Amino acid sequence: RVVTLYIDDRLRGLTDYINKVSLPPLLKESKNEQSSDITWSAGWLPQGFSLVRYTQEILENEIIDSALYSDGLFTFTLFVSNVGSNDLPENTWKQGAYTIYSEVIGGKEI
User: Where in the numbering of this chain does the MucB/RseB C-terminal domain appear (predicted)?
Assistant: First the structure.
C-alpha cells in the first residue's frame, strides 16, 4: 500500500539506505497455532487483517482470551475476560507506542 509517493532524485540516498537495512521478517499467519476453543470472534476487522493466534491464559483464577490479528505489517491484540461489574467505564491509555482501549460489552471486558 502506498501512503505517500515522491518522485524525486533527492530521496535516492534514503531509498539506498532502506534497501540495505536488515528489516525484521513480516509476521506470517500460522494456522497450526490457532485453537479450536475460540468461542467468540471479532464482528469487524480492518481490510486485510486476519487471526494469527488465539490463546487462553489464567491470571489470578480468571481466564483471559487473547486473539492476535495482523495484515503482515501491523498487529493488534484483542483481550477478552469476564468482568464482575458492568458499571466499569470505558478507558483509553497511551504508553509509548501502545494504545489500550477497554470497555465492557455483554459482561465481558474487551
Answer: 36-110
Query: φ, ψ for residue 54 (rounded to 5)?
Result: -125, 130
* 8 A C-beta contact, residue 55 and residue 66: yes
Q: Is residue 2 part of a domain?
A: no
Amino acid residing at 14 = L
CB 93 within 8 A of CB 99: yes
Q: How many domains does the structure of the chain reveal?
A: 1
Side chain identity, residue 34: Q
Does the pTM exceed 0.70? no
Contact 58, 86 (CB under 8 A): no
- C-alpha distances in Å from residue 31, one per residue of 27, 34, 50: 12, 6, 11
* Residue 16 located in a structural domain: no
Residue 12 domain flag: no
